[in-house]
Structure formats: structure tokens, C-alpha cells
Amino acid sequence: MSHKSSIFISSVQKEFAAERRALADFIRGDALLRRYFDAFTFEDLPATDRRADDVYLDEVDRCTVYVGLFGNEYGYEDPEGISPTEREFQRATQKRKFRLIFVKGADDKARHPKMLKLIRSASSQLVRRRFVGIPDLTAAVYASLVDARASFAPRPLMPRPATAPA
Prior knowledge:
Elements: E1 5-10, H1 17-29, H2 33-36, E2 37-40, H3 52-62, E3 65-70, H4 84-94, E4 98-104, H5 113-125, E5 129-131, H6 134-152
Helix pairs in contact: 1-6, 3-4
């Protein structure tokens, strides 16, 4: 029986609509990746009688891999001034999920100050990669997932060496 790892794709939805869809489609369509991974995006959920923040944090709890796409926008802020993207990153960190961060663009001047702070926080915890477009993003995610698979995949049992007769 095959066990697939779940990938949670996190970002400001409006800013990254095309990238989120392309990345989920890429993971689902690639022969190697679809063998080992399922992609989750919030857009794939049907309407439900639950609060949105409860749903997305539950999905972060369930995932194996958190993929964060960080750009210029910080997004909607809750009463505490924290965006869903930052909450998701915090939860993935708290739950010790395998985290991959991809930052769009090389120019930080246009970034919302809170997004810049989130990028700096992530950068102090892990290696992140920059990307400029969807082909660049999918190539970087592919390389990272293939490399990461070895980190959390169960290792096959090695047969015991035969002992020599005494």
C-alpha cells in the first residue's frame, strides 16, 4: 500500500492565483511527484460550515510538506494583525512540518513591511529560494521535493547479510 505525503500550498490567494493552480496541477500531473505527493490548495475545498481559519490550520496539521509562496502582498489581517499566510507558516513551524519557502522576485522594495518581516523570519530558519515565474517555480519545487523525499520517506529495510557457516 502506497502512502502519499500531503503538500500544503500557502500564499496570499489573490496574488498567487495562477502560481497556486499551476503548482498543484504540476504536482498532480508529474509522473514521479504524483506517485509520492498529493497537493492541497484551499481553492479545492467545497463550501463547508466551518471557519476558514480552522480549515486551513487543520490542513497544515495534516500535511507532511508546507510550501510557502511569499510575494509583495501580506494579505487580509485578522484582529491580531496576522495574515492567514503567516498563521500557516507559524503553524507549520510549531508542528515541525517540512517547510519549503519560495519568494517571488528579487526586489524587496515593493513588499508590504509585514511580508518582508515574514520573509526575513523564514530566512533565519531555513534556506529559501527566489523565483521569477511559473516555470522557474515548478522547477525549483520539483528539485526541492525530490531532494526532500529522502528526508521523510521511510527507509527500506536492508536484508541481513548471510552469516558464514562456523
